[in-house]
């Protein structure tokens, strides 16, 4: 796999996202400038200037018109992808840990940080997809998360029906996206081990969570049932689902040397890990980063993936043909049955 | 005897994979069909805006303009 290094950020990467076409990568880091890159060659497409603090989160709408970012300057902002123009700034009492568009791009959610005197909130805004339109100040929904621990990650399900949240005690919850009512709550990960990432399947009917408990888990969106578990040997920061027909998931994490308390512990382990989604078996690793992988993302067209590291780099890997051709014997058998 | 034991173990692994595969695809077929029915009954197109973003003109290699 031919890696491309995106160097331009001066600090640790926090989130990376592909455009829904797969041609652009958006990255945010602890420096204050969201960046956009061509996934094919790693050239910079643009930068979005205005934030005044570390950034935690980025997302892009389905038509690659609008970009949303959030971070430690207690703002969530909306940008025009093409021009870099800032279209909207929403201000909060605490930082924004996560933002995500609904699948139709008509709603945007933000997760606010829990601090003394402030609860974790999930705020939702209706979005006008026209970059020249005025965007609303009025939240269409606010979920005040009182009964559950701090929200770390959140997203909209298929049809925008539910909001799914992950929490710093390892639990996952499902909320009615219209009323904000808590519908279901499961304890998927080890108690007290934070859910660090939540990424969707292409149709948002299932999702993967990553956790500090060294596992990633596939959940059914409707029932929150854990369908699959992927066991790693290092705390995980991120997990991504490869689009069909490739049946893989990619996990990223690693322990920084300063956090390794015992001298016997092997330092590092800074690799992207590939698992077979259905069989839960590890099938390969990709090295390269000099620090933990803070985020992994797969292009929606399945042709490449990228990882954002604590080392300040984004690495883009375009898959070689053997990656697509590899199949277990029972998979080949199934293909023959179906007449491929 | 060892190789017989091994081949029994291998067979168990393969059988387990075969079962996982068929369970997975049975679940996917059900969920995909339910979602499609729901989308159509809500007056939505079969595929989401996100999924449509992947439509490309194979010859041109560029996005289809509808």
From TrEMBL, chain A:
GO terms for biological process: formation of cytoplasmic translation initiation complex. This is Eukaryotic translation initiation factor 3 subunit I. It is found in: Cytoplasm. WD repeats lie at residues 6-37, 48-89. SMART domains: WD40. Component of the eukaryotic translation initiation factor 3 (eIF-3) complex. It comes from Oleoguttula mirabilis. InterPro entries: eIF3i, WD40/YVTN_repeat-like_dom_sf, WD40_repeat_CS, WD40_repeat_dom_sf, WD40_rpt. GO terms for cellular component: eukaryotic 43S preinitiation complex; eukaryotic 48S preinitiation complex; eukaryotic translation initiation factor 3 complex, eIF3m. HAMAP family: eIF3i. One of its GO terms (molecular function) is translation initiation factor activity. PROSITE patterns: WD_REPEATS_1, WD_REPEATS_2, WD_REPEATS_REGION. The keyword Protein biosynthesis applies. SUPFAM superfamilies: WD40 repeat-like (SSF50978). Its main location: cytoplasm.
């Amino acid at each position: 796999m031919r890696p491309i290094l995106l160097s331009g950020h001066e600090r640790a990467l926090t989130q990376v996202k592909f455009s829904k076409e797969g041609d652009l990568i958006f990255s945010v880091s602890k420096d204050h400038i969201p960046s956009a890159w061509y996934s094919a060659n790693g050239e910079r497409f643009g930068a979005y200037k205005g934030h005044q603090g570390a950034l935690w989160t980025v997302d892009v709408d389905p038509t690659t018109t609008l970009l949303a970012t959030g971070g430690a300057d207690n703002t969530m902002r909306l940008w025009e992808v093409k021009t870099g123009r800032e279209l909207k700034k929403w201000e909060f009492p605490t930082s924004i840990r996560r933002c995500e568009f609904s699948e139709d791009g008509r709603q945007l959610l933000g997760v606010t940080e829990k601090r003394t005197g402030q609860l974790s909130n999930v705020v939702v805004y209706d979005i006008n997809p026209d970059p020249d339109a005025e965007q609303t100040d009025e939240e269409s929904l606010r979920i005040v998360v009182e009964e559950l621990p701090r929200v770390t990650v959140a997203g909209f399900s298929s049809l925008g029906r539910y909001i799914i949240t992950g929490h710093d005690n390892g639990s996952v919850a499902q909320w009615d996206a219209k009323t904000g009512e808590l519908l279901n709550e499961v304890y998927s990960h080890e108690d007290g081990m934070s859910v660090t990432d939540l990424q969707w399947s292409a149709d948002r009917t299932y999702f993967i969570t990553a956790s500090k408990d060294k596992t990633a888990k596939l959940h059914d969106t409707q029932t929150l049932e854990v369908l699959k578990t992927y066991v790693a040997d290092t705390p995980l920061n991120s997990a991504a689902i490869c689009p069909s027909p490739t049946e893989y998931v990619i996990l990223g994490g690693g322990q920084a040397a300063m956090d390794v308390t015992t001298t016997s512990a092997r330092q590092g382990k800074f690799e992207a890990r590939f698992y077979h989604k259905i069989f839960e078996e590890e099938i390969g690793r990709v090295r390269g980063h000099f620090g933990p992988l803070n985020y992994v993302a797969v292009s929606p067209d399945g042709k490449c993936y990228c990882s954002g590291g604590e080392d300040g780099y984004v690495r883009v890997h375009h898959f070689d043909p053997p990656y697509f051709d590899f199949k277990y014997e029972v998979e080949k058998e199934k293909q023959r049955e179906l007449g491929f | 005897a060892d190789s017989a034991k091994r081949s029994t173990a291998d067979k168990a692994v393969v059988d387990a994979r075969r079962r996982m595969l068929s369970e997975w695809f049975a679940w996917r077929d059900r969920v995909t069909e339910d979602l499609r029915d729901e989308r159509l009954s809500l007056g939505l197109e079969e595929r989401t805006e996100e999924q449509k973003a992947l439509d490309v003109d194979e010859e041109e290699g560029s996005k289809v303009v509808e």
